[in-house]
Specification:
Distance between the termini: 42 Å
CATH superfamily: Carbon-nitrogen hydrolase
Largest sheet: 6 strands, mixed
CATH architecture: 4-Layer Sandwich
Shape: globular
Oligomer: single chain
CATH topology: Nitrilase/N-carbamoyl-D-aminoacid amidohydrolase
Order of helices and strands: EHEHEHEEEEHEHEEEEEE
């Protein structure tokens, strides 16, 4: 079985939700039935609002989130494709109950509710699920609460997991997704200079070590002193690139042959050769090297 994957490398307008949704509409049309005939179209992290809350006109509400979801669902239904897109969310849910949960909670004060850096998976029939970013980078904890699960969803082409940007740099999340049967892991991202090579290296590593397809969809453009570097990519678990984008905005596509997963070199039995009884330090709450990226 194969399907066509599309990655939208775009520069959202900071704080201009309508402009960003209009650009998404344009890209969905390009990807749709009269264009590239994409089956699954992926937008970057926080593509609806832009990355930096300093440029948002106000804190989004639950009504805003429902409106965005309705707009994106209409696009998916119109073109008959599945869409992954990044947005602030009050709804940390790992399945379609997110839709009813959001609808039930539309009344009340949003200011005291946790807001998540989230990505939703939308089919032509509606919301499939929402993932909340687990590993928050830089100043993100000042705005967003941390997610607490690594969900995997059924699609017509296989099991798909979604994580976000900085999550890519923690191998544990990808391994959890693989152990839950994920055939493909997708990372909408807002990676910036000088870390451009990081996501390419980690994307290929996650694909090879977990025997699954891995895609990173990174944005372009500038917000304040942040220069986002593009470089969206798709890695085959055999160690080759299916997409290697440069810095330019655009729609990048490739065909994913899911049957390739059945033909991988059996001598690389990473899951058969695991020794979980030795991995207890991986879940310790303290320890580790103190070095790491600084704050934005």
């Amino acid at each position: 079985m194969k399907f066509r994957l599309g990655l939208v490398q775009m520069a959202p307008t900071p704080g201009d939700v309508e402009a960003n949704l209009s650009l998404m509409d344009e890209m969905v049309q390009r990807a749709g039935t009269t264009g590239e005939q994409v089956d699954l179209l992926v937008f970057p992290e926080l593509c609806v609002t832009g990355y930096s809350p300093a440029y948002w006109k106000r804190r989004p509400t639950r009504q805003d989130e429902q409106a965005w979801q309705s707009r994106v669902h209409e696009l998916a239904k119109r073109e008959g494709i599945w869409i992954i897109y990044g947005h602030p969310s009050y709804c940390m849910a790992v399945n379609a109950s997110a839709k009813s949960e959001l609808a039930r909670s539309l009344h009340g004060d949003d200011a005291h509710l946790p807001l998540y850096n989230a990505v939703s998976l939308i089919s032509p029939h509606g919301l499939v699920g929402t993932y909340a970013k687990v590993h928050l980078f830089g100043n993100e904890p000042a705005t967003f609460a941390r997610g607490d699960a690594f969900p995997v969803w059924e699609t017509p082409w296989g099991k798909v997991a979604i994580q976000i940007c900085y999550d890519l740099e923690f191998p544990e999340g990808a391994r959890v997704a693989a152990l839950h049967g994920a055939d493909m892991l997708i990372y909408p991202a807002n990676n910036m200079a000088p870390f451009g090579e990081y996501h390419r290296i980690y994307t290929m590593a996650r694909a090879m070590e977990n025997a699954m397809f891995v895609a990173t969809v990174n944005r372009t453009g500038v917000e304040g002193n942040l220069q986002f570097c593009g470089g969206s990519c798709v890695a085959h678990p055999e160690g080759r690139w299916l997409i290697e984008a440069g810095p330019a905005p655009g729609l990048y596509t490739c065909d994913i042959h899911m049957d390739d997963l059945k033909c991988l070199d059996e001598s690389l039995g990473y899951f058969r050769h695991r020794q979980p009884q030795l991995y207890e330090p991986l879940v310790a709450k303290s320890g580790g090297h103190p070095a790491g990226r600084g704050s934005i």
